[in-house]
Write a structure and sequence with these properties.
Helix content: 40-55%
Distance between the termini: 24 Å
Number of helices: 10
Radius of gyration: 17 Å
Bound molecules: pterin-6-yl-methyl-monophosphate
CATH class: Alpha Beta
Oligomer: single chain
Structural class: alpha/beta
Strand order of the largest sheet: 6-5-4-3-2-1-8-7
CATH topology: TIM Barrel
Order of helices and strands: EHEHEHEHEHEHHEHHEH
C-alpha cells in the first residue's frame, strides 16, 4: 500500500479528534501535542478529524472543519508522522493531503460526498471506506439488518467496487462499529472478521472506547474502556486485520506486538 511499509503486524492508528469535546478551539497546540504523544507511544499513524461522528452529533461547516484539521495535520506531518484525515468531505480531504496527510479515512465510504472517490483517485492515496448508512444525527434508526454480517459485507463490497471503479488503488475496508449498529451487531461483526477479510482488502477496526464496550461492562464510562479496547485489538490482530483505530495507543501498540510474536512461524 502506497506510503505504508509492510510491518508484519497490525498497525495502530492513534486518534486525534480536533473537536470541542476533546480540545477547545483555543488549544490547537494541545491536539498537536496529543498526536506527538501518541506517536511516542508507538502509533504507526495518526488519524486527525475535525467533525464528531458520535450518534446524534450535528454537522460542522466545511470551513470550521478545515480550520480545525489543517493546522494539526501540517504540524504533525512536519514531525514526520504518517497522517490520515478523518473526513467525509472531498474539499477537506484535498486540503489535508496538500498539508501532508497520506491517507483519507472516510466514514461514509464515499456516500456523503460524490466528489470524494474521484478526488482520492486523483490524489492517489490509500482510502479507508467505512460501512455507513447515513449521517450520525439519526443513524441508529438505520440499525436494521436481516443478517448483519452478510448485509455489511454486501454493502462494503459495493463501496469497494465503487472506489475501484473511480480509480482508487488502495482501499481499506472498515465495518464501522457503532455506526447504525447495536451492541449485538458490533459483536457479530467482530466475531466475523474473517468474512470481512474475505472481501479481499485490508481491514481496519475501530472499537476504541465505544458504547458497546461500556454496555458489556455494566455501564463503564468511555475513559475506563481501554483494557477492553486492548482485548479487541488482540483478537482483531489475531484475525489478521491491517489496523486498529484507538485512543489509547500504548496498550494496543503492546498488544499488536505480542500477537505478531505469537504468530511468528
Ligand atoms: N469511528 C469514529 C470515527 N471515525 N473511522 C473509522 N475508519 N472507523 C471507525 O470506527 C471510526 C472512524 C467514531 O469514534 P470516535 O468518536 O471515538 O473517534
Amino acid at each position: 500500500m502506497k506510503g505504508f511499509p509492510e510491518l508484519g503486524r497490525a498497525r495502530v492508528m492513534g486518534i486525534v479528534n480536533v473537536t470541542p469535546d476533546s480540545f477547545s478551539d483555543a488549544h490547537l497546540h494541545d491536539a498537536v501535542a496529543h498526536g506527538r504523544r501518541l506517536l511516542d507511544e508507538g502509533a504507526d499513524l495518526v488519524d486527525v478529524g475535525g467533525e464528531s461522528t458520535r450518534p446524534g452529533a450535528a454537522r460542522v461547516s466545511c470551513q470550521e472543519e478545515l480550520d480545525r484539521v489543517l493546522p494539526v495535520v501540517r504540524a504533525l506531518a512536519g514531525h514526520g508522522a504518517l497522517i490520515s484525515v478523518d473526513t467525509t468531505r472531498a474539499r477537506v480531504a484535498a486540503a489535508a493531503v496538500e498539508a501532508g496527510a497520506v491517507m483519507v479515512n472516510d466514514v461514509s465510504g464515499g456516500l456523503a460526498d460524490h466528489e470524494m472517490l474521484p478526488l482520492v483517485a486523483t490524489l492517489d492515496v490509500p482510502y479507508v471506506a467505512m460501512h455507513w448508512r447515513g449521517p450520525s444525527a439519526d443513524m441508529q434508526t438505520r440499525a436494521v439488518y436481516g443478517d448483519v454480517v452478510a448485509d455489511v459485507c454486501t454493502e462494503l463490497s459495493s463501496r469497494r467496487d465503487a472506489a475501484t471503479a473511480a480509480g482508487v488503488r488502495d482501499v481499506v475496508l472498515d465495518p464501522g462499529l457503532g455506526f447504525a449498529k447495536t451492541a449485538e451487531h458490533n459483536w457479530a461483526l467482530l466475531r466475523s472478521l474473517a468474512s470481512l477479510r474475505d472481501l479481499g482488502r485490508p481491514v481496519l477496526v475501530g472499537a476504541s472506547r465505544k458504547a458497546f464496550l461500556g454496555t458489556l461492562l455494566d455501564g463503564r464510562p468511555a475513559a475506563d474502556r481501554d483494557a477492553a479496547t486492548a482485548a479487541v485489538t488482540v483478537l482483531a490482530a489475531e484475525a489478521g486485520v491491517w489496523g486498529v483505530r484507538v485512543h489509547d495507543v500504548a496498550s494496543s501498540a503492546d498488544a499488536v506486538r505480542v500477537v505478531a510474536e505469537m504468530r511468528r512461524p
